Structure formats: structure tokens, C-alpha cells
Amino acid sequence: MLLKNDIQALKYDKGTGELNNWLITETRFNPETLGKVEAVFSLGNGYMGLRSATEERYSKEVRGNFVAGTFNKFLGDKEVTELPNAADMTEMALTLNGETFQLTDGEILDFDRTLNLKDAELSRQIHWRSPSGDEYKLFFTRFVSLDNKHIIAQKVAITPLSRDLTLKLNSGINGQITNTGTQHFKEGVLRLYDQKIMKLEAHTTESNIDFAHFTRHEFTLENDTFTPKNTIFMDRRKIFTTFEPETIKKNETITIEKISGVYTSRDRDWENVDTALASFATVPNYDTLFQAHRKAWRTNIWEQYPIQIEGVDFDQLAIRFAVYHLTGMTPAHDNRMNIGAKGLSGEGYKGHAFWDTEIFVLPFFTTSNPKIARQLLEYRFLSIPGAVRKAAENNYEGAMFPWESAWLEDGEVTPVWGAADIITGEPTKIWSGFIEQHITADIAFAVWQYYQFTGDQDFMEKHGYELLFATAVFWQSRLEENSDHYEITGVVGPDEYKEHVDNNAFTNYMAHWNLEKAIHYYDLLLQENPALLEALSSKWDLRTNYRKWQEKSSKLYLPQPNSELVIPQDDTYLSKKIIDLTPYKEASQVGALFLEYNLDQVNDMQITKQADVMILLYLLENEFSPEVKQANWDYYEPKTLHDSSLSRATHSILASDLGDKELAYSMFEKASRIDLGQNMKSSDPGIHSASIGGIWQVVVNGFGGVRMLDGKLYLHPHLPEKWTALQFPIYWKGSRLLINVTKDTIKITNTSNNDVQLTLNGTEISILANTTFTNN
């Protein structure tokens, strides 16, 4: 039986005092909406991500533990590389006085599952009446350690309220977990060490990665630790122990700790399974681990990113939620890895990295933690060989980056077939991996943006210049000559509802930008570092390509605003059929349009999935006048369904630029509730990484007004009417600035030893080292 009379499934106001706006609470158990909370409440540290499935099993759960960078390909022509679902170590099956603990049975008298963002700990409090009428209180907690990246820690406390308790616990390591039916692991060694530590080894079928899983248990009754009677059993890819303690008296509390660890041969410090075991054997108990974990979050995360919003409690919670997941999804420990479109919170998009990283997530790290931003860009540099191979396979030159990326050397890993066509009943072909090519320019843009914010010359000399040149070599080979100009035909732009279009404005403008930046830095290196230029020239034939860049860039067709100042999204968009989109824009279900039309039909309508021309106006904003921006907003936003989670954040920022505070805030509200809101089916495959990054961009770039234009820092805040204050940090050229905006005052504290120049509300100012500038 489920709790009744709950209006909302999630609550946001449980926290008080020091925990105000730090807690997200599930108020009722619903076996039909497990996936949402599994993803939204997922725990992670960048090394691994753990979906928050409960200790007990349910039919519609999706258990998941994903270790970054451990991709594997199931054998078969139709399969692509994906992040394998590692063995589950969180299951703890409880039998209480002969009855299986299941919330679908009996009666839930009280229920509360809470994610504490501040401590990155998940807790669950339950008062349960069994089918026979016995009552129990159970308190579960768990975390994935930020201090020790290999560790998952769990604790459960059980108190019998009706009579003495005979308890049986079945717990261990389950390697029978799959990726929606696909088994990525070969059978490995199972073993019990010292009657205490269980081990399960596994080995990926194609990528040959060794996994070593360990777990151990500790029992405490009224502060006394003991070892209960137990029986171990092994099955195929599974090792479990059944524990049977002596009778627990009524109103006494038994506490069980389960500490688990996962190690892989991809770890930079991996030697073998024995060294992993030795490392795990020295891991302390739950409370000691938690204190170190808690300190790591407070020191490394919340003190590093002190973003404060005053005026709307939910908005403060939302930005903390964003930072929490940005931390958990990012493999900050290893530049051979990148951020998946679902982070490490689910199987969605198979763990692959998209343009989401460079355009939506990377700006957070570029301005807040440049060291991590550099590592994410180094991943792209290290994956140049795969990009070169993709270019060659398509008869192009240079580096053509994959739409979806996994292993550094993989090249393209986008699946070829997708969901069923509502009209034909056949699978829909996914064209993104073939013709959605703007990602190559997006990566170049992110390299340049990082350089402008950080001034990291070492990165540019080792990686950045080559990325800019290699991508420009691709674009010059990609352009198609048409009479006296060049075009880019047969592509998909950011609007994935328009396939095989010619001269998508975003793609053409970004390709042109990429070529122009390559020309600029070629000229710069010719004067300042000819030796480096010579080394890169010999690798990429830059002398020949430089001439091609100059000739082709000057003749590349760039769609211009028409008489109404509207930039054509592509050559035919403005001539397509217009239909009433009101019912689809108001639908609670994303993609409701495809219940009535197929993609071929939508391709012939003026319908846009997400920001396309709009994101062009955001990224290259100083190339377009305010009048052009307003005209394009007025034209395209009514035709945009925002069916991608990437869309509303961009629109919110542009609405701020256009002076519409109310609309900007409305778009922000909708964006911040994509994962965090009350739609209990929005996040089943995993959280929306790009949307999470977009929330931060709205707060800092939109409402905070932070921009970098032509290599200079600008600040022009647009505080929402409902907010009274906003505080956030950014790094600029190695200096850390703490910016505090209220209705009447802007304070900028320079915490570095260097002066900083910026333009504040149109006025150039200099903020001296270790001083605070105040603008009343």
C-alpha cells in the first residue's frame, strides 16, 4: 500500500538552518516512477556513477553502476561502443520475521527519501507495517566517496517495534547486471577472503578491461560489533552471503554497514587485482569514510563554487543541484575520458560524449575550474586520430570529430538506427553520425573560449593550436564550390528535426569562424613562434591549407538577414509549411509531435526542435545587431518546441539580452525543472547533462551577465525581479573574481595578486589586486 494524500512526489523545502535549500526529498514510494529518482538522486564522483536504486529489488527498477572510460562493444555489426553496467554491489535483501521487506507489500506508515546535496549522501527513512502486522523502522544511508574514488558506502539501521526480530540478510556482489540485456563481461574469479571480503572479478568482452569488485559487511547491535552466523554461496557472475544474526529484541536497533569498492585496469594506478584488494582491505568504516567524503565536498566543491541566490529558495536549490551533478558526472581524474550526455546516471546515449560537453558543460569549468576544463579539452586532442580516420572515411581531410565519442581512437560511435517511425513502422535512421558536422567547429570554439578566459599558453602550444588547425583543415575540405562561392550542403544543424539541409546557418557561420581563427593564429605563430608553426605545418600541410583557408573562407556563403531581419535557418526553412504548434508546445510529453507525424513530414514544416539560429546569436553575439536578434527571436521561438533539454537555457540567456526579464526567468524555471521538477518520467534514462550545464550558464552568463567578447571580459547583470542578490565566482586570466550583484549594487572582489580589466555595464574598469570594487 502506498502513502496517500501526497500532492507532490518531490519536495524541496525539507532543509532548515544550515541545510536550507540543500535537500531534495521524495515524499512517497511509487514503483511506477523508480527511474526518475534513480537518476536524479544518483551518486557519483566522476570516476563512477551509481543510480540510486533501492537496496531491495523491484520489477521496474534499473540498477546501474558506471565507471568512466570503460567502454566495451558487444560483438555484432549493429552494436556500438557503450559504457558497460558494472556489477551491482548495493543490493541488500532483508527478511524480517520470515517476511520479505518490500514496499509494494504491507503498509507504508511513513516514508522519506532525501538527497543531501551538501554532503552528497542519500538517506531513506521508513516506518513499515508488514503484511502480518509487524512494524519496523528502517533507516538507510549511502554515498559514493569523493575522497576515495573507488568506494561505495552503505548503512542500514533496523528497529523492530512490535516484537523481537529474527533477521536474515542476503547481500553481496551481482555481476549478472546487463545493459538492457547486453552482457559486456566475461565470467571472472569469485572468492571470499578471511571470511570477510567478497570479491568478483570481471573482464569486458571486447575492450579487455579488468574489473575487480569487493564488498564487506559489519554488524553492530546497541554499539557492540559482532559477526553473525553466515553462509556464502556463488553463482554465475554472482557472490552473496546470507547473514543470520541472533534475535534482536523489540525496540533495539541493529546496524549493518556495507562497504564496497570497484577498481579497473583503466585506473592510472592499477597494477593487478591483488593491489586492488590490498587497497580495499585498508578502507575504514562508514563514519570515517563519510567524514573524509564530506570534507572533500565542502572544501573542493562548495567552497570552490560558492554560488548564492537570494529571493527564490527553489532557484538556490536548482543551482546547487546543477553543481552537484556537474561534479558527479565529470571524470576530473583522467584526460582520457569525457562527459556523457547522461553523465554517469544511466544507460541513455550509451555514455557517449556529444557537443553537449563543449557548448553547454565546459563553460562552467572554463570559468570556475580551468584545470578540469583543460583536461576535458585534452580528451579531444587525444582523440584526433579517430577524428582523422572519420574524415578520411568520408573523403575529407583534417580532423572530423564524431557526433558521438567514446574511446579516444574509436571515431564515430553514433548508432545507425533509432526509434520506430510512427507512419512506416520501420526503425528511423539516425543521420547525426553521418551529417551533423557542426561539432567539429564547436570543439574549436571551446578551445578558443578556454584560451581567452585562461590565457593558458602552455595548453595552446601543446594542444590548442593543433586543434584549431586540424579542424580548419577539415572545413576547407568540406566546403563545396558553387559558381563564385562555397557552400555546405546535406547536413543536420542543431535543429535535428531538419535533415539533409543545405547551408544551415549555424553550421556555415561556425565553419567560417573556425577558418578565420585558424588564419589568425597561423599569422600570429608566424611572427611569434615560427618553430611551433613549422612543426605543425609539416604534420598538417599548413602552408597549402592556409592559402585554401583564405580563399574559401572569404567566399563561404553565410545566410544573411532578409528584409524582415530573419536569418534563414537553411536554404528552404522559410518556405516550408507552417502549422499550429500550440498543442505540442503545451504537451507534458517531450516529442508529442511524433505521435501524429514522422520525421520526414516534420522535415517539411517550419518546426524547430531546439535553439539553432538562436544559439548562433548567443555564441557569436557580437556579429549581430540587437534588431536582428529580436527579429529572429520573434520568428523562431514560436516555431521551437524545446523538445531538447538544451534549448530553454539558451533562450533564457537571449531573453535576458533582449531585456525581457519575465520571459528569461520563465525559461530558466522550465529549464531548471527538466530533471528537478515534478515530471516523474523525465529522467528515466539518466539526467540531462547539457541542461545541467545550461542552468549554470543561465545564472552566470544570463542573469549574471558574464561574457567574453573578442578576448575581453564583460559584465552586464540582468537580475530577475524575484531575486534580491546573486553571488558567483569566475576565473579570468588566472585571477579569481567573486561577483556579488544586488538590485542596487555590484561588488567585484579580486582575490588574486594581479589587476583585472573588464567592462562593467558599458564602462571599462580596472579592479586592483586583492581589492573589492563597488558600483552603486
Automatic annotation (TrEMBL):
The keyword Repressor does not apply. The active site is at 496 (proton donor). GO terms for molecular function: carbohydrate binding; glycosyltransferase activity; hydrolase activity, hydrolyzing O-glycosyl compounds. Signal peptide: none annotated. The keyword Transferase applies. Residues 320-697 form the Glycoside hydrolase family 65 central catalytic domain. Residues 707-765 form the Glycoside hydrolase family 65 C-terminal domain. Keywords: Glycosyltransferase, Transferase. Substrate binds at residues 355-356, 609-610. It comes from the Bacteria. Belongs to the glycosyl hydrolase 65 family. PANTHER family: GLYCOSYL HYDROLASE-RELATED, PROTEIN-GLUCOSYLGALACTOSYLHYDROXYLYSINE GLUCOSIDASE. This is Trehalase. It comes from Listeria weihenstephanensis.
